[in-house]
Amino acid sequence: MIQFERFELxxxxxxxxxxxxxxxxxxxxxxxxxxxxxxxxxKTGFAHLFEHLMFGGSANVPDxxxxxxxxxxENNAFTNNDITNFYDILxxxxxxxxxxxxxxxxxxxxxxxxxxxxxxxxxVEEFKETCLNEPxxxxxxxxxxxxxxxxxxxxxxxxxxxxxxxxxxxxxxxSFFYKYYRPNNAILVVAGKVKTPQVxxxxxxxxxxxPPGPKHLRQLPQEPPQKRLEKRINEGxxxxxxxxxxxxxxxxxxxxxxVVDLISDILGNGSSSRLYRKLLKEQGLFSSIDCYxxxxxxxxxxxxxxxxxxxxxxxxxAAAIWKELEALKAAPIPERELQKLKNKVESTLVFSExxxxxxxxxxxxxxxxxxxxxxxxxxxxxxAITTEELHKAARxxxxxxxxxxxxxxxxxxxxx
Length: 416
Hints:
This protein is an alpha+beta fold.
């Protein structure tokens, strides 16, 4: 059981504190409730751009990294469809350094044309490296575009095209910042060798006078149910053929999310999973195969991906996967197989909570979902799932009408 206390500042900043005397360190996590789903279709990649801009200096701190490193700490950040998350870990006695740095960039980011130009180039270069020049790098562009027609999950976090970030102006950036990177749209979690009264005092001192932004009410279009199989074939400079099957699934707010997450484990988590054991080890149809969920807050995707073995066509590979999906739908899984899966999930959750930084990140995310105490309830959610629930969910979700199928073919190189 992870114990914590929470309070809220007058400007709307939510604060969660987890005291842990087993470590000399403190983790400071700032989650901003903004991700790629909050972007305009003609201005994508902005949340990811801001992940970089937030390290470009602020009113009193021209360089974010150096003061933290001098305090014996390190930091990083990540952005996805739903959130932008910044974290610092440092010796607990130097906790105030992280408060100073995080509050300064929340209060007044350095809106400098030179900084924007540098970070624009960094982000565009990252787009080219990871999406255009890396094998299978644009897979998510294809999957998202097929699976989503109206919801902003239809573009990846890095953006639709580099041009959107290239064209970002100072006014665009300022507008995005003052709309989303405000205390009333953020959650601060402090975990480690700290005391709640100490954190309260520092939070008021460093964040208390930052003005809130306008209240942001997210109103996103709801993706309608998919009614037919979406198919796409793409050729690229990749080493081997690959295939992807993406199925719509429930949101993080629904109990069924955990049911479908377990289905992904049945199919593709580890060497004893069904797809790995039958299609890779026994039949040798694939050189690699996996199944996972996107984990997004709004209704996301369960994805099966595999690279076919030499001499095996994508059509053969897809047919073999569908055969296993039909087998899963045909009858409830044995109770023993389900319990083994539940035990594996629980041990993974327990192991992840040994790390103070992981606890800080997870507490922030669950607080965003509505209650940080969900961190203590997750294992019970999985343990309560029945074989009947799994069977029902598999039959409802693993259908052709609910699927987007991508064949990614290795381009044939012609010899001159």
